[in-house]
Amino acid sequence: MNIDDCRKHFTFEPEAEYHARSKTGECMSSHMLRKFAESAAGYFKLISEPPEEKKSDAFRFGTAVHCAILEPEKFFGRYHVSDGPVNPKTGKPFGRATKEYAAWLAALGEKEVLSGKEWKTLEAMRDSVMLHPECAKLFSAGWAEGVIRTIYAGTLCQIRVDWFNPEAGIVDLKTCDELKWFEADARRYDYPEQMAFYRSIVEQKTGMSNIPVHIVAVEKSFPHNCGVWHIDGHDLDFLAEDNRALLAELATCREDEYWPTNYENVRELKVW
What we know:
The structure is a single chain. The protein is of the alpha/beta class. The protein has helices at residues 3-7, 15-23, 30-38, 40-48, 57-70, 75-78, 99-107, 116-130, 133-138, 182-188, 191-206, 233-256, and strands at 79-81, 112-114, 143-152, 155-165, 169-176, 213-219, 226-230. The protein has 2 domains: 3-54 and 131-256, Lambda Exonuclease, Chain A (Alpha-Beta Complex); 56-115, no CATH class. β3 (143-152) and β4 form a beta hairpin.
């Protein structure tokens, strides 16, 4: 499939608009499917009473990293790099809790602010990714943050792919503390399950098959090493079966109007 024919299956929209449709339960995302896997009752409460969203500094910085690497042409339209207005009495920036800083921030409009220190770290992470020879191949063609919605396993699902290259397939960008722990982190945070979900949705929508999947991980701390992982297609097929089973359970919960916690029965606590 050529790049133009493939791209037409994707749409592009603001991140907040995309997430809003999964938070209400309108669409099932990979993140919300993992919440359902943990507890159907917990998932139902999340979509029934969505908690107030509070973006952590780590989340905010991770979003900036994605933009700098995947959509560099949009970066300075979304971000302003500065330590804030300077107090003429001290020669140092006003604190973020001061009214001077608040007024300065309001004047920037919707732009997010990154400190000089954050920008220096972000630059190092970006350069590490871009200088990695395998990343150069993966990001040589394609597009960022493409959205697909489709009925999958009887449920309206949606995905927002970090990067899609019709030749290299799905590329997901992750930040991590140290590369030596990344494989353990990937299993802990269900990254393979997420990638299996993405792959299934893309294949169903586009008609493509055996789409390659890679994860690019870059360290948040010096020396900001970057690594690339490929996930075996057979493993993804196996995990896709698990995802379909979860979606079947979701349909049953909706039909029965019963949302279990998964902790209804007495469990045996193993001491050793």
